[in-house]
TrEMBL record, chains A, B:
Residues 7-331 form the DhaK domain. It catalyses: dihydroxyacetone + phosphoenolpyruvate = dihydroxyacetone phosphate + pyruvate. It comes from the Bacteria. It holds the Pfam family Dak1. The lineage of its organism: Bacteria, Bacillati, Actinomycetota, Actinomycetes, Micrococcales. GO terms for molecular function: glycerone kinase activity; phosphoenolpyruvate-glycerone phosphotransferase activity. Pathway: Polyol metabolism; glycerol degradation. It comes from Cellulomonas pakistanensis. This is phosphoenolpyruvate--glycerone phosphotransferase. One of its GO terms (cellular component) is cytosol. Its EC number is 2.7.1.121. The gene is dhaK. GO terms for biological process: glycerol catabolic process.
Amino acid sequence: MKKLINDPQSVVAESVEGFGLAHADVVQVHTDPLFVSRAGGAVSGKVGLVSGGGSGHEPLHAGFVGDGMLDAAVPGAMFTSPTPDQIAPAFAAADGGAGVLAIVKNYTGDVLNFETAAELADADDLTVRTVVVNDDVAVEDSLYTAGRRGVAGTVAVEKIAGAAAARGDDLEAVVAVAEKVVANVRSMGVALTACTVPHAGKPSFDLPEDEIEIGIGIHGEPGRRRIKAAPADEITEMLLTPVADDLGLASGEQVLLFVNGMGGTPQSELYVVYRQARRLLEGRGVQVTRSLVGNYVTSLEMQGASVTVLRLDDELAALWDAPVRTAALHW
Amino acid sequence: MKKLINDPQSVVAESVEGFGLAHADVVQVHTDPLFVSRAGGAVSGKVGLVSGGGSGHEPLHAGFVGDGMLDAAVPGAMFTSPTPDQIAPAFAAADGGAGVLAIVKNYTGDVLNFETAAELADADDLTVRTVVVNDDVAVEDSLYTAGRRGVAGTVAVEKIAGAAAARGDDLEAVVAVAEKVVANVRSMGVALTACTVPHAGKPSFDLPEDEIEIGIGIHGEPGRRRIKAAPADEITEMLLTPVADDLGLASGEQVLLFVNGMGGTPQSELYVVYRQARRLLEGRGVQVTRSLVGNYVTSLEMQGASVTVLRLDDELAALWDAPVRTAALHW
């Protein structure tokens, strides 16, 4: 294992420290317990947004803390849920007096620990509502999850709910917008290679030199099937078709198309995938009116990509377009 | 070799096509010959900025086309200089009547082909001035270069010269700003793994499982030395020290610190490197007042990073801060 780290035990703390130094205009880092919040503190009267999860998926989630998106993010150990005693102070830091929305990817540990933290917050008279993201159509139930997993679609939930909170929606309304995104976003991914979690020291699974895994999870959990390596256009069709079918996309609809890199994929390859996913959508009569391409929900240095489609209406498109100022998304 | 491509011969064209579709609000793609220009066309009365080079380093250069940065970019084949007949029409597309600045990384093929294209432009009464970027302190002369190589510092040259052109500087003044950046920016990189150029089909060099290459070039050209894998803080010091020494940084000076990923490095590791580079600079009494961390000048899926330091004065800091709206940099 070759990595630019000092020690598997300190990599998360050191990385988050570096992140805080590089983006001090946008975030502040709290070390005991570890979480990240907006540089300016909670916004009075605004619904606070908090997310979090295992580290190793950067820029998710700390990269999305800032104006128009999250108020706080809680990084767990590598591929490990953050603990309730990390999450509860993040809720408090995000509290501007209008309640807090927790955006949680559907992994059993995350759901459980955010729920426990919400109970702790409730005991302090802070109302926390939770929306669980489960956009991965690859498998029902998996290694760490009951029901579908939450993957790259989380970026859309955080961006759009963040914009709703920023425009002044109350907690119920922000929850409703977040649930609307969850209901209309689907994803599926492929791995060409495994990744190595630092404290494990060896690849998280074995993938032969001539095989790829369709439907991979962001921790390398098994997907739908292994196949021989194939041309990008064929792989893209294997990802896009179940996504579009699950959404029941009809001709004339408008969507956001998001091609996400798993961390170790050259950007040139992501655009090859984007090109084909777009052609397939247009072939169904679906209009791609918003796009995102890049490494946003990663699995360390895994090579691979995922395709996410979000069905848009005018409200979701406007909230997607609304200004955002975070380390990883900025417009 | 497992890659998300269809065919090594078509990957650049397909990728640039996808890039153009995803970012149609910012760029337009020309296919015969292949180059990328601003969506709105040349800006009348503004100095045009053009860069280019081999593909495989994305988002460099097409990702930097847009308001406040480049007017056109010319992608060659993978790790191969673009040809003069690609570059000359890009010059013409960038021409707003105030002349064109070509920003060229110091590789023999790039320098030669941009020079030939400038002669073609001159025959059409278009004045092209060229600034060569040579920020890599690792080696004097290398596999493809006489003199120092041009690497990640190119981003700073393109951003800052782009801002100078956007504020209305004339050609001589934009050239002077670009040369000032070149004179004050230095970089050095490390590779943990090699990358595989699609048409080659095998890694561009061999690096044993327990060794890393200090001073690597962005095409995998040999660096200063191979060493056993070491902690990130030690590696970072091996990169930062020659950079800071070559710049002759003195206590009290202000800098931009840019940690660039080579394409396959987890973001968490880049921030570990940033943290240590910043500590080392601060230990010298140098103030880091601007930061950039991410994959901006890559080598396909290579794992590794480079450290770039730009000495700032008020003018360069203001030009760095000026608005930019491109696919890869946006503020």
